[in-house]
Amino acid sequence: MTTTGTDTTPGPRALARQRRRASAARFWRRYRAHRSGLLGLAALALAALAALCAPLLAGPDASGVTDAPGRPLEGPSARFPFGTDRFGRDLLDLVVWGARVSLLVGLLAAVLSVAIGTLIGVTAGHFRGWYATVMMRITDWFLVMPTLVLAIALATVMSRSLTTVVVAIGVTTWPTTARLVRAQTLAVETRPYIERARALGGGHGHIMSRHVLPNVMPLVLAQTTLIISSAILAEATLAFLGLGDPTVVSWGGLLQDAREAGAVSSGHWGYLVPPGVAIAAVALAFTLCGRAVEAVLNPRLGVAR
After folding, report:
1. Which is nearest to 109 in space by CA: 49, 174, 44?
2. Using CA atoms, how far apart are residues 235 and 165, in angstroms rounded to an integer?
3. Distance from C-alpha of 152 to C-alpha of 158, rounded to nearest angstrom
4. Does residue 102 lie within any of the structural domains?
């Protein structure tokens, strides 16, 4: 028996790529229906662009105190739109440089927090028994303890660096993610294909990695975007309290410098407003994006215009 022509049926990998592209296109089409999400995404793109281009926009020596271009605590002017700090540095350049540290710390801390919460949530929902009981009691303990107090305690006993700030935020903000992921894992574990996987000899690792984790990833993605805003605010708080890395420029560090310089009592509001507005704007942008992603992944929430 002979066949004519060529077989144009795509292979498994090609089909998987097609499904991923179709899923991404469907996600973007639904995301565009959320105007607040598009506004937040545009603000984040602008902040990320400023952070990436900081050496070009502000210059490589913008944070140096030896060759400051102006006088200390100058008011806003054509030369210095935001004024100068207590060392005579251009505040606009410092705000641009601060975006690099604040965004980086927020992203890394959120990734660490979500990773810990996802690991505990998935394993506690899968194994149950005494392990789930112990993990959930630990989670409850972290939930009732003030997150900021725990982060301050960790940042105090560890060395002052960006790594310390990331760890302090990451290891104190995971309980909410763990609770949400465990609930989703319990729901996924009741589905028929999980029983079929067990009947066919699928082990714990196979079930968690190939069946449970892909089903909880949409929730993890939405939770990540929401946690980033909290992580940025926490980083700013720690830096404002003097627990950040003093050798780098961040938005929270600028607020701490303004406090030490007596900007409030002397009426130099231009020292406080730019970094404060930057923190609030980026945190709000991440929150808007997170709410939009959550609404796309959970259609029951409806379309938020």
Report:
1. 174
2. 7
3. 10
4. yes
CATH at 285: 1.10.3720.10
Backbone torsions φ then ψ of 84, nearest 5 degrees: -125, 165
Three-class DSSP category at 90: strand
Determine what percent of the chain falls in helix, strand and coil, rounding each to the nearest 5.
Answer: 70, 0, 25
CB neighbour list of residue 39: distance below 8 Å, 6 or more residues apart: 285, 288
8 occurs within a structural domain: no
d(CA 303, CA 188): 25
Which residues span the domain enclosing 218? 28-53+85-301
8 Å CB contact between 265 and 9? no
CA distance 195 to 141: 33
Q: Is residue 273 part of a domain?
A: yes
Label residues 259-268 b or e (16+ Cβ within 10 Å = b): bebebeeeeb
Distance of CA 62 to the CA centre of its chain: 26
3-state secondary structure of 259: helix
Q: How far apart are CA 86 and CA 183, in angstroms?
A: 51
Give the CB-side neighbour count of residue 32, counting CA atoms within 13 A: 5
pLDDT tens series, the chain, 305 aa: 444 555 566 777 777 778 878 888 888 898 888 899 999 999 999 999 999 998 888 777 777 767 777 888 888 888 888 888 888 888 888 999 989 888 998 899 999 999 999 999 999 998 888 999 999 999 999 888 888 888 888 888 888 888 888 998 998 899 999 999 999 999 888 888 888 888 888 888 888 888 888 888 888 888 888 888 888 888 888 888 888 887 888 898 888 888 888 887 777 787 888 999 999 999 999 989 988 888 887 765 544 44
Q: What is the DSSP letter of 75?
A: P
Number of domains within the chain = 1
Tell me if 107 is assigned to some domain: yes
Pair 74, 84: CB distance under 8 Å: yes
